[in-house]
From TrEMBL:
InterPro entries: SNase_OB-fold_sf
Source organism: marine sediment metagenome
Protein name, as recorded: TNase-like domain-containing protein
Length: 107
């Protein structure tokens, strides 16, 4: 009988905890393999439990850099070199946000 009164509170608490889990972004350690341009790189993502996703294309959130081909080539190569300098140690953390742009690429 006591448990019947307690059940709605336990259920509400479990729903609260599950909503917190979905609100969090995922953060993974990664090793940079190569920088493509000023806003894109290739990295190996460590998912845990000895699971590694090799050669994943990663677009940096909120950055729109010049491309390394076409008319923007010179500026694009400068931004690429800058990003390579910032990531020279090779170990980073990747925060995954499940958002997609209108072009089908990650935002």
């Amino acid at each position: 009988m006591k448990y019947k009164r307690l059940f709605p509170f336990v259920l509400a608490f479990l729903f609260f905890l599950s909503s917190l889990a979905f609100a969090l972004d995922y953060i993974y350690p990664a090793r940079v393999e190569r920088v493509i341009d000023g806003d894109t790189l290739i990295a190996d993502l460590e998912l845990g439990l000895s699971i590694i996703l090799d050669d994943q294309y990663i677009r940096l959130y909120g950055i729109d850099a010049w491309e390394t081909r076409g008319e923007e080539r010179e500026k694009g190569l400068e931004t690429k070199e800058y990003l390579e300098g910032r990531l020279k140690e090779g170990k980073i953390e990747i925060e995954i946000r499940p958002e997609w742009g209108s072009n089908g690429k990650g935002k």
